[in-house]
Amino acid sequence: MDLTKTFDDRKTKLNKVLRPDSHIIYQYDFGDGWYHQIVVENIETIEDESWGESRVLDGARACPPEDVGGPPGYEVFLTTLRDNPDSEEATHYRQWVGPGFDSERFDIRAANAALMRLATNRWGNR
Predict the structure, then answer these.
(1) Which of 54, 93, 96, 111 is 20 to 30 A from 22, comparing alpha carbons?
(2) Does 14 have pLDDT greater than 60?
């Protein structure tokens, strides 16, 4: 795979550009500059499901809040909550993200439910 080439995600099927042991760099939110490295461990054909199945096998930590300001903004967010939890800024952050936000928590069930919603919305009813 040519790592200098970009692909339109609306027109490109992953099985046309990825192979086992390959990876892609995915940029999410061009304004904030989030980059994710996605490693392909294996590609399987699933005979009993015409649309296939994707699933998250593992992960770590919660997703950063939307529009937190990219990696630098998220660092400030976490540092403020950790080091100055009683500050006005920390109070504002907690109100913004809502109750129960835990940066260390990874919810694999929620991640897989999100993938299922994407598959259903894109290809019709399961």
Answers:
(1) 111
(2) yes
Rounded-to-integer distance, Cα 54 and Cα 46, Å: 10
CB count within 10 Å of CB 3 equals 9
Residue 7 lies in a domain: no
Please state, in angstroms and rounded to a whole number, the distance separating the CA atoms of residues 102 and 61. Answer: 8
Task: Please tell me the distance from the alpha carbon of residue 59 to that of residue 49, in angstroms, as a whole number.
Answer: 25
Q: What are 30-83's pLDDT values in tens digits?
A: 788 888 888 888 877 666 555 556 788 899 999 899 899 999 999 999 999 999
CATH for 95: 3.10.290.30
Domain that holds residue 48: 14-123
Residue 118, both tokens: 């994407």
Residues in CB range of 56: below 8 A, 6 or more apart: 108, 111, 112, 115
In a domain, 1, yes or no: no
Indicate whether 126 pLDDT > 50.
no
* Structural domain contains residue 6: no
Domain count, the chain: 1
Answer yes or no: is 3 within a domain: no
Q: What's the mean per-residue pLDDT of the chain? A: 83
